[in-house]
Amino acid sequence: MAPTAMKAPTRNPTRAVPAMPGTDRGSRAWTAPVALAVVHLLLALAAFDPTPHTGGDNAAYVALARSILEHGRYVELWDPATPPHLLYPPGFPALLALAMLVGLKPWVGLKLLIVATSTAAIAFSYLWLERQWGRHTALAVGILLATSPAIVDMSHWVLSDVPFWMLTMAALWGFARLDSGARGAAAIAIAATVLAYFTRSAGLPLVIAAAAWLALERRWRVLVALAATFVPLAFVWWLRGRGVEGADYLDSFWLVNPYRPELGRIGIGDLASRMWANNGLYTLVYLPVVLVGKGGGIAGVLGAGATILALAGWISRIRKPGLPELFLPLYVGLLYIWPDVWAGERFLLPAVPLILGYAAHALVMAVRRLGVPRPHWAGAVSVVAIVLLALPAQLAGVRRGIACTTAYRLGATYPCLTPPWQDFFSVAEWTRVNLPEDAVLLTRKPRLFYGLSGRRGRIYPRSPETSELLREAREAGARYVVLDLLDAQSYRYLLPALAGRPGAFCLVHTLGPERATVLAVVPDAESVPDREGEATEVGLAMCPPDYRLPSR
Predict the structure, then answer these.
(1) Residues 6+ apart with CB under 8 A from 331
(2) Deepest of 39, 86, 396, 488, by most Cβ within 10 A of its Cβ?
(3) 16: burial class by Cβ within 10 Å (0-12, 13-18, 19+)?
(4) Partners of 481 in the beta sheet?
(5) What is the side-by-side order of every strand in the sheet holding 440-443?
(6) Are strands 517-521 and 541-542 parallel, antiparallel or unpaired?
(7) What is the Cα–Cα distance from 155 to 152, expressed in whole angstroms?
(8) Can you name the residues that pair with 505 across neighbouring β-strands?
(9) 416 in helix, strand or coil?
(10) Nearest 5°: CA angle at 436, between 432 and 439?
C-alpha cells in the first residue's frame, strides 16, 4: 500500500476566515469607512468657513508652529519676553509646522488640514466601532458622526481637539486589533496613544487606561513598549516646566472661575457643584449639540436618553472590562472636574463614539428582550430620526459656509464676524500698519492680536484697579492698551481701570463711540492722581503724533 502523503504540522496554526467586513481581510472591509469619510468630507467642505476662530487658542498654536519652524524653539512669540511655552504639548504645533513647511498657510490652508484629520477620525471611529460592536452598530453610529452638525463645524477650526479625537480612535482601533494578531497593531496603538497625549494633555486618561488594560490582559511586551515610548518623553516634557512659575496648568482647575480670579479657589462642596453642573451641560446641552446641532428642549431629552442608554451599555460590559470600559469614565471624569465655564462640545469629541456605541448596544439589548424581531431596525429608525432632527442645523451650516466662502473669494479677508469682532480684527490690522514693530500692547486676546497684527502683548490684568493696569504695562513694557468691548471682561475690569485715572492715558486710534479703541499710557502715568469721586465715563485727550508711525 502506498504511503499516504502527509503535510507537516505548522507552528501556531491559524484558521482560515472568510473575507468579511470587520476583519483585516478583503477590500470590502474599507468600503463603509471610506464612504462615511467621503460623506463627511463633502459636508465639511460645503460648510467650510475661512474666518479665523476667535477663541485665541488657534493663534497660539500657529505662533508655536512658527516658533518651531522659524526659530527652532518652543517659545511664546506673542509675549514680549518670549518665554518657553509650557501649557500646550508640542504635538499639534509640530503638525502645523510640518504643514506650513510643505506650503499650507494660515488660516485657510491649515483649516483644510483639520478637515483632513476630521475625515480620518470618522474612518477610524467606524473601524473601531465595527470591531467592538459589529457592522450594524458601526454603520449607525458612523452615520451620526459623519453628519453631525457640530463635528462638521469643528472640522475647520485650527484647534487640537479634532486631531486629538482622530488619534484617540486610532489608538483604540490599534489596541482592539491585538487579539487578531494584525501586523503593526501594537505599533499603531502605541504611537497613536503617545501622540494623543502630546496633542492634548487630556490624553492622559487614555495612557492610564491603556496601561491598566494591558496589565489586566497580561500583555507585558506591549505594556513595556508603551512605557518605554511614553515615559521618557513625558519626563522630558515635565522636566522642562519644573520650577517655572505658571507651568502648572492644574492651578486654573481649582479656581471658582478662571476668568474671575478674585472669586478664589473651590472647595469640596464647590467641586461637587461643578461636577453636577458639568453633568447637566454635557448631558442636556453639548451631547445634543453634537447629535442635532442644538441643546435643551427635545434635544435635551434626546441627550438624556442617549446618556442613560450609554450608562446601561457600559454597565453591561463592566464585569470583564476592556480598554473602552476603562477609558470612558476616566475621560468623562476629567471633563466633569473641568471648570464649567470652559465646557464645550469640542471636549466631548473623543467620548462621543463610545457613548453612542454603548447606547446602541443597550438599545438593541432592550429591543431583543421585548421580543421584537430584527432589533437592529430600532437602531436604524433612531438614526433616521436623529439625522432628520439635525437637518436644519446642517443646512444652516452649509448656507453660512457658502456665504462666508463667497465673501472671502470676493476679497473679504475676515468674513462673517460679528460687529465687535470685526472691530477687533480691524484694530489689529491698523496696528500692523501704524504702530512700531516693537510695540507692546495689553489686550483681551494677546495671542490672537499677535496673529493678526504681529505686535506682541499680554492680557490686561483682571482687576478694576488702575494701579494694577499700570503695573502690568510697566512690567510688560507695554505702551498701548486695546479697549475691545468683546465681552464682560472689558466692562468688569478695563473700563473701570481707565475711568479711575483717565489722565494716565491718551487716545491713539478709535473706530467710534463704544467701539474698539487703541489707547496709550502717558509718561509718568503711575504718578498721575486718581479721579476724585465716582467715575461714570472715560474722557481722554488725543495722543501726540509720535505714538504712531509717520503716515505713508
Answers:
(1) 202, 205, 206, 350, 351
(2) 86
(3) exposed
(4) 442, 519
(5) 456-459, 440-443, 480-483, 517-521, 505-510, 541-542
(6) unpaired
(7) 5
(8) 521
(9) coil
(10) 90
Specify the DSSP class assigned to residue 283. Answer: I
Q: Three cell numbers at 512?
A: 467710534
Query: If you write DSSP's letter for every residue of 481-524 in order, what string do you get?
Result: EEE---SHHIIIIIHHHHHH-GGGEEEEEESSTTS-EEEEEPTT
Rounded Cα distance between 65 and 74, Å, is 8
| Cell numbers found for residue 200 | 492634548
Has residue 145 got a pLDDT over 70? Answer: yes
| Whole-number Å distance between alpha carbons of 381 and 386 | 9
Q: Hey, is 62 helix, strand or coil?
A: helix
- Reported in sequence order, the residue ranges of 152-197 that DSSP labels E, i.e. its strands, are none
- C-alpha cell of residue 356: 453612542
Grid coordinates belonging to 229: 515610548
pLDDT tens per residue, range 406-453: 999 999 989 999 999 999 999 999 999 999 999 999 999 999 999 999
Question: Strand 517-521 and strand 505-510: pairing?
Answer: antiparallel
What pLDDT is recorded for position 23?
41
* pLDDT (tens digit per residue) in 268-296: 888 899 999 999 999 999 999 999 999 98
CA distance to 29, 436, 457, per residue, from 453 (Å): 49, 11, 11
In 3D, which of 344, 347, 30 has the Cα closest to residue 205?
Answer: 347
Rounded CA separation 257/61 (Å) = 24
Angle between helices 135-146 and 31-46 (to 10 degrees): 10
Q: Which pLDDT belongs to residue 131?
A: 94
Residues in the chain: 552
Q: Classify the C-alpha dihedral 157-163-168-170 as positive or negative.
A: positive
Cα–Cα distance measured from residue 158 to residue 65, given in angstroms and rounded to the nearest whole number: 12
Sign of CA dihedral 277, 282, 286, 287: negative
Coil, strand or helix at 294: coil
pTM: 0.90
Pairing of strands 440-443, 517-521: unpaired
Q: Which helix (H) or strand (E) holds 113?
A: helix 108-133
